[in-house]
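pinned: reference chain
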Amino acid sequence: MNLTRRGLIGAGGVMLLAACSDGGPNEKVTGGGQNAAPAATEYTGPNVALAFWNGFTGGDGPFMKKLVDQFNTEHPNIKVSMNTYQWADYYQKVPAAVATGNGPDVGIMHVDHVATNAARGVILPLEDLSKALNLTADDFSPPVWNAGIYNNTRYAIPLDVHPLGFFYNKAVMEKAGLDPDKPPTNNDEYQAALEAMKGKGIQGDWVTPFEFTGSMQFQSLLWQFGGQLFDDGATKAMFAEQAGVQALTWMTDHVKNGYSPKNVAQDADIIALRNGKNAFNWNGIWTINTLKEDKNLQWGVSALPQIGTQKAAWAGSHNFVQFKQKTKDDNKLTAGKVFINWISQHSIEWARGGQVPARKEIRDSADFKALPEQSAIGTQIDYLHFLPPKPGIADVMATVVTSINEAVLGRKDPAKALSDGAAKADQLLEQNAKKYGS
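pinned: its structure tokens
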């Protein structure tokens, strides 16, 4: 899973969703509705073939393929075939395929796409599966579990979470006289470390104006300062209020005070860390396996430092979904649920691919604790934040990215950039409410 490809998971494909609904934009799919089938923990029916689509085209793909192969070996009456696409292509192909009756049976969706696809009838409720397996928030984590609910109905079962972590170059820290085994944990320590590196001619923490990873850093800081992206109903933007200004000012001050260069290019921040040009980088858990490729690199990773008044971190999440069928097939639906449950229970192998398993029993296992980098980032599980389950929310988030870009590049001050972005976000939220009927 590389960084630039992950940059495609945002708004790509949303515009084609309208083609996937049998009804109009206000069509609702509720628990136990069309295509629903009783959930089961085992499948005893006739041989069935399942198409499983996802976007795991990077280094994580082989880990999922290994799990699928193992599942097929243990379930001779279920044959799962895995197809992978670039995420941007995936979010276009899936709705179109479902609309023509040629869609996959089971798939993966980022949590911020679940509500949109639920509203358009592309995916099916999974309430029966969670109830049959007696799954609750305690089996996962409340923020992770609740992220898969739209209109009081569950549409997704979480596979993993992929939060931001705090990566640091130990050799660069040592060069500045810092303890390489004690990364900063709060703002005072952070500022002191940046000053120490500046004194040695090192710009220690490069701020990027792009979604990866500037927007994710901003969101983490926003929540740490007690703010929110949107109000509770996701009807109004809140990111331009005081907490948002504090968060974005903290970032732009890096450039102003010489801790970061101006005009940092996409991915240049993590490249600089790998090349010994900077010491600190807020980046996703997927960076673990990237850094492990540098055999001579001395690096570490921890939970994000608490810059604001509370702990918080941005996170994404891959979720299992089932797709609407042209003709209902209870065997496929039941077998798909068995597959989802089995992969969830065996997700320690997925963790080795660079993820934090959503399932608590896997996170608490000795096998997961034996993965020190994933475990360090996983300690943030109970104070992770996700986008609200609102149809079209990925499109709205483009206004946040634009605001950060304008401020970090010095084109607007943080308050002005955020205010302008929030005004555009409010317009999009209103349009989406009419478009999706929510």
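why pinned: The first strand starts at residue 48 and ends at 54. The radius of gyration is 22 Å.
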